[in-house]
């Protein structure tokens, strides 16, 4: 009896070789009863301080995946450091539209602090910025205004806030719970289509929310929503009514004292340059942007504003124990994972019901750029290629792969921070195969407190810049990180990602029917 093989779900993920920065992408396709879906494309951060590397990768991804449709399904910004966001302009050039934009809910004062920190690190003044820096300043101070041409009536912006409660197991079961959105998202068409949504739609942003975030009202009031990081997100196959992928975020909540610190930075900046706080948020934003771009030399920023505020708060501001110049309290972590209900998923997607057998494939590969450019780029398999039937389900294939936990630049150094992080993901702690060492391997962001909690069988990766390491004071990754990994017993299977090396992995679920 002849059998027909049908590819039901294919997922491809890439750790792009951008050097000192981060750019992660995913492309998901599914086949339902009505045919193949259009690819669902998502990006987590897009930036680099390594000259040329970030631009080349962002431009290549845009040409390969975004030009034809003119849309990116989901863009997640973990935080507002330049090496994570300064290539978003390249990614979205030619007015590529974003359906779902996910940002941490940060105060305008905190984002101003991040801009000042960026230029103090680089040792240049804003007036001497490069093209990426110009975009960075504008985007950090006014992210929604900067991306105005990339948002339309079909776009939704989510501002993610911290929630101390752990996430629930969510949709494990038949995977058919999805709130949906009005309009084109719930229209049934002949071709299957995927969309993203949270377990609840969250709440509409209020006028007060907009003032805190520092943004004007968007064209459609429903577009800007506040969601808690305990809410799980889903990629949903609309026509078939089933979830094919899940997302869970985490953001550490900042303390009241930290808020006071950011406000002090803001007030010192406004007082020094004669900016009136009583003006509208838009007017203050515009004036701050103009002042930043007119500055030459970093003495004013460093002495009269930045270090003056740090000195005042040195006695009791807990973040200084971590080094204020490495401070980033807003970084979102993101876990993406596959559902465990493969049999139910297959039955839903197959044209004629139940499968006679399921077939799983996984591939992992290395991206090499021998001179750091696409001119010398090659890709090949790194780990053995695995292909197996449904009755063979080793833990790393069935329950782990291709689930990935991205930590970005999160602070996970002290036990209280690690406990809160674990609290968020405890229901899924044994279900990821790939884990990001935080903040490019900085010793100020992680140590054995974190590494002893991570599953030893999970592979880890460190993203960093080689030339950046050699020429700057960042020194990522820090040698002490490897001592901490050895002590924790998890220093094997660490993947290096830099301007010369990238990494990609894919998962395919197929079914056989006669």
From TrEMBL:
Query: Which intervals of the chain are annotated as region Disordered?
Result: 162-191
Q: Which InterPro entries match?
A: RibonucZ/Hydroxyglut_hydro
Feature: compositional bias, Basic and acidic residues: 182-191
Taxonomy, superkingdom: Bacteria
State the protein's name: Metallo-beta-lactamase domain-containing protein
């Amino acid at each position: 009896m002849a059998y027909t093989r049908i590819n039901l779900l294919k997922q491809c993920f890439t750790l792009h070789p951008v050097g000192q920065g981060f750019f992660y992408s995913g492309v998901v396709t599914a086949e339902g009863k009505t045919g193949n879906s259009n690819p669902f494309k998502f990006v987590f951060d897009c930036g680099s301080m390594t000259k040329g590397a970030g631009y080349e990768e962002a431009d290549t991804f845009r040409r390969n995946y975004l030009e034809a449709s003119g849309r990116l399904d989901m863009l997640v910004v973990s935080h507002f450091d330049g090496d994570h966001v300064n290539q978003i302009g390249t990614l979205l050039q030619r007015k590529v539209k974003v359906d779902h934009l996910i940002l941490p809910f940060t105060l305008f004062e905190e984002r101003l602090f991040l801009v000042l920190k960026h230029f103090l690190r680089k040792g240049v003044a804003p007036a001497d910025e490069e093209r990426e820096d110009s975009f960075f300043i504008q985007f950090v101070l006014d992210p929604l205004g900067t991306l105005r041409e990339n948002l339309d009536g079909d776009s939704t912006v989510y501002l993610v806030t911290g929630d101390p409660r752990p996430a629930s197991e969510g949709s494990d079961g038949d995977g058919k719970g999805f709130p949906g959105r009005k309009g084109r998202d719930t229209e049934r068409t002949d071709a299957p289509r995927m969309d993203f949504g949270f377990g609840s739609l969250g709440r509409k942003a209020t006028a007060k929310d907009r003032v805190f975030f520092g943004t004007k009202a968007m064209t459609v009031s429903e577009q800007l929503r506040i969601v808690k990081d305990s809410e799980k997100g889903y990629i949903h196959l609309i026509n078939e009514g089933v979830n094919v992928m899940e997302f869970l975020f985490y953001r550490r909540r900042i303390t009241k004292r930290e808020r006071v610190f950011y406000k002090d930075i803001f007030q010192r900046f406004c007082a020094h340059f004669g900016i009136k706080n009583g003006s509208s948020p838009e007017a203050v934003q515009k004036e701050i942007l103009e002042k930043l771009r007119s500055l030459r030399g970093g003495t004013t920023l460093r002495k009269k504003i930045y270090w003056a505020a740090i000195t005042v708060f040195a006695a009791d501001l807990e973040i200084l124990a971590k080094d204020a110049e490495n401070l980033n309290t807003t970084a979102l972590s993101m876990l993406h994972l596959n559902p465990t209900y493969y049999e139910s998923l297959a039955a839903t997607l197959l044209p004629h019901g139940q499968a006679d057998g399921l077939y799983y494939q996984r591939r992992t590969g290395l991206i090499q750029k021998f001179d750091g450019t696409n001119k010398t780029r090659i890709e090949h398999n790194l780990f053995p290629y695995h292909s197996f039937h449904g009755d063979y389900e080793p833990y790393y294939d069935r329950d782990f792969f291709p689930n990935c936990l991205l930590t970005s630049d999160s602070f996970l150094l002290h036990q209280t921070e690690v406990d809160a992080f674990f609290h968020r993901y405890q229901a899924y702690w044994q279900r990821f195969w790939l884990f990001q060492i935080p903040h490019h391997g900085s010793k100020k962001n992680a140590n054995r407190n974190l590494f002893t909690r991570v599953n030893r069988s999970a592979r880890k990766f460190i993203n960093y810049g080689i030339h950046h390491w050699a020429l700057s004071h960042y020194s990522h990754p820090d040698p002490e990180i490897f001592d901490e990994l050895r002590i924790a017993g998890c220093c094997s299977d660490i993947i290096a990602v830099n301007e010369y090396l990238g990494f990609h992995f894919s998962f395919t679920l197929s079914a056989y029917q006669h």
